[in-house]
Amino acid sequence: MAKRFKNFKTALKLLVPLNGGEAQDLPDTSPLGYYQAVVSGKKKVEYGNRAASSQPGSLIIYALMPFAEPDADAATAKVTLSKRSEGATGTTGISMSVLNIVKTATEMNDAVEIYGFVPAKATITIKTPGDGTPTTSKQTGRSYKDDSNASYTYPFGMNKSALTQGYKALKNAIINAIKADNRSVSFTPEIYR
Fold this sequence. Notes:
- Helices cover 25% and strands 23% of the residues.
- It is of the alpha+beta class.
- It has two domains: 3-40, no CATH class; 52-192, no CATH class.
- A three-stranded antiparallel β-sheet has the order 7-4-8. Strands 1-2 form a two-stranded antiparallel sheet.
- A hairpin with a 6-residue loop joins strand 5 and strand 6 (143-146).
């Protein structure tokens, strides 16, 4: 279960009697009782299929220069991008040139798989207008408003022709590229072991 259900897990542990034994079953009319029924398997949860627009699709190989090796002659690294994210560049306002990722034949021939390398990533979220759709949680039975925001994740790296432009400068370039009222971006730093 996800971290957000930590309080429910703790509450279920407190239902176990001090002298041992089984916890008392709660009616599934309360959020805790509903969660208990889901965890114990008495209530089956079905999520259904994801909408086609939410499916990541196939992964496409791109090449980028890691921030850890700012050398124009260094080998580029192979990274993946989902077909869904690639097709949403117009919606997100980002371009491959801002991200410094390429898939030209020359670059792809020179790119190598670097084990222990995870590229820096920008996750762009497009907020759906409105207050959201009232939805019932399949875990707790509580009602909440589903915003149905769409998120797209993009790897990014160094610019071979501007080696002095580091991670911070590239983050600012991405922020400026996606500026709009309904867009936001979060970043994950590169890992190079």
